[in-house]
């Protein structure tokens, strides 16, 4: 009875997690192994044959190798956006934590507003068009940075609160300039939360569907999520190819989470208690 009380809740949580995450993934894998006729049933039946490689070749080569260029676009978008988010969020979090001014309250309110208020699509499109950035990959990079900064700033600020201020003062006494204090003293200490931020933001940006759909029209700059439209139509959907495409674009984020799961948890909880 004691063991049931001790491990019962954990067993229930593990079972629910497996039901929520593993069952849909198993369904995707099964559908990717089927041909078009069997996949049209959209059920959990076992594949009658192994059509996975055939489906992969078709998906990759469709529309002049669109999936390959989409992976390149998504990689460029993710790396550029996450790099800017990490640098800007760490710097803003450092300044907010170390320098107390009368504007801190307003800045914190604006940061929280960025988390709570949903994005306005039409005004953002007008702004991008005015700047000549609409439909361009680096324009979407700025959008992703703007959407990812509020959460990242709060994450960095909480972690920086655990770093003693004496480190800054000692570096300044040794003749370090403000940028030297940040990049040579503070930034290396932010590695745990930086890994967390990189993983969370990378998966979110790589899997982003709505922002590329709104702000990056056209096939030239298509990202991996937009390639799902290749196998959907009003009258005939190739579900075997659709789910094969989903499987291919799911593998990179899945690998990232499997390898960096512990770092994510450690970084999220590192700033919870001030030392």
UniProtKB/TrEMBL annotation:
Q: Pfam families, from UniProt?
A: BPD_transp_1
Q: Which residues cross the membrane?
A: 12-33, 70-94, 106-126, 138-160, 181-206, 239-260
Membrane association type: Multi-pass membrane protein
Under the cellular component aspect of Gene Ontology, which terms does the record hold? plasma membrane
Q: Which GO terms describe its biological process?
A: transmembrane transport
Q: What is its main location?
A: membrane
Task: Spell out the PROSITE patterns in the cross-references.
Answer: ABC_TM1
Q: Which UniProt keywords apply?
A: Cell membrane, Membrane, Plasmid, Transmembrane, Transmembrane helix, Transport
- Protein's cellular compartments: Cell membrane
**UniProt xrefs under InterPro entries:** MetI-like (IPR000515), MetI-like_sf (IPR035906)
| Residue ranges of every copy of the ABC transmembrane type-1 domain listed in the record | 71-260
Q: Source organism's superkingdom?
A: Bacteria
Query: Gene3D superfamilies attached here?
Result: MetI-like
The similarity comment for this entry is:
Belongs to the binding-protein-dependent transport system permease family.
State the protein's name.
Sugar ABC transporter
Native species: Rhizobium freirei PRF 81
